[in-house]
Amino acid sequence: MASESMAENAMKSAYIETMTLVERLHRRFLDIVRIELERLGEDDINNVQSLILFHMGEEDVSVGELTARGYYLGTNVSYNLKKLVESGYVGQRSSERDRRSVRVFLTSKGEDLRARLDGAFVAHAGLLEARGLEVEALDEAAATILRLGRIFNEVVARPAPEAPARLREQPFTARAAAF
User: Fold this and answer.
1) What share of the chain is helix, strand, coil (3-state, %, to 5)?
2) How far is Cα 167 from Cα 3, in angstroms, rounded to an integer?
3) Pairwise CA distance, residues 23 & 38, whole Å
């Protein structure tokens, strides 16, 4: 019984420490992106908006597609895409297949910033490599984070029995970003 409790405490401690480190690493990454934007002389876009722009890539996408990729939450994406359109990094047009759907795409200004951010990320990757961090270690960390995300999605998918009916009836995809 005591060994079970010790094992539970060890797992809980490792879990809390890992989640704290992931959250801290995420905040540090956003700081790094903000610093890179400053170095690039970009003052009309924030770090989150620049990451949305970066993840859009070269294809037209909808808000739903960006959300489904698991990068961002729906409301956050809508607000930030609106800001990206206003600042000229992203354009928008009606979908050819469904006129009710709006597709967004990088403008030449957005493509230029995406290329410059990509260059910064290449430099960051070179720094990681120079410091002895190997691709395999990053792949293993990514695999672990994906597993954690899937487990968290299971937790989110099971609302507490006392949860309001509106939460129990809400589809899984509306309650959790896909991992």
Assistant:
1) 70, 5, 25
2) 38
3) 23
What gap in Å lies between CA 59 and CA 167, rounded to an integer? 34
> Which pTM value belongs to this model?
0.79
Phi, psi of 59 (to 5 degrees): -105, 155
At 160, the amino acid letter reads: A
Separation CA 81–CA 55 (nearest Å)? 12
Question: Do the beta carbons of residue 103 and residue 61 sit within 8 Å?
Answer: yes
- Tell me the pLDDT tens digit for each residue of 138-173: 999 999 999 998 998 888 888 777 766 655 555 544
Q: Give yes or no for a contact between 65 and 81, defined as CB atoms under 8 angstroms apart.
A: no
| pLDDT 10s digits, 35-71 | 999 999 999 999 999 999 998 888 888 877 877 776 6
What domains, with CATH codes, occur in the chain?
A: 44-133 (1.10.10.10)
Terminal-residue alpha carbon distance, the chain? 35
- Distance of CA 44 to CAs 17, 32, 74, Å? 36, 17, 22
